[in-house]
Design brief:
Elements (H helix, E strand, L loop, with lengths): L2 H10 L3 E3 L8 H7 L4 E4 L4 H4 L6 E4 L23 H8 L3 H16 L1 H16 L5 H17 L1
Length: 149
Amino acid sequence: MPWEQLEQEFKTADVFLFPSHSTPGLAILDAMSYELPVITTDLWANAEMIEDGKTGYIIKKSAKIQYYTGDFIPNWSHYPTSKFMKTIKKTIDPEVVKQLVEKTSTLIEDEELRRLMGKAGRKEIETGKFSLIERNKKLARIFGEALES
């Protein structure tokens, strides 16, 4: 999808609903920059980006899907023929669906909450932990420590 079309979607949306079995790269942060509250799954880095109840909602991941191998290694096999992908495609977890409906309904019905969460997300992008200033502080610390070694 061309960026212009995606940007139009962000501008006209009220909520960014991203129930996922993975972390979507920058999509969540992009949505936050457009003041959209985000609903996503508690997987990988998603909960590091969304503060539950403040910038959106984190729903529990499916108990029916094995996200880690026996050695606690992420089961990231995303090839279309992988067992992980086949399981995802045929598994519907009623508990996950219930959470999605509840959280989405809450945001649809409460315009003020949507606005507050959206503004809180935008603030994280502009001046909070995802801002360029904070990123550059972290990079300066990392490079400074590397130079001292």
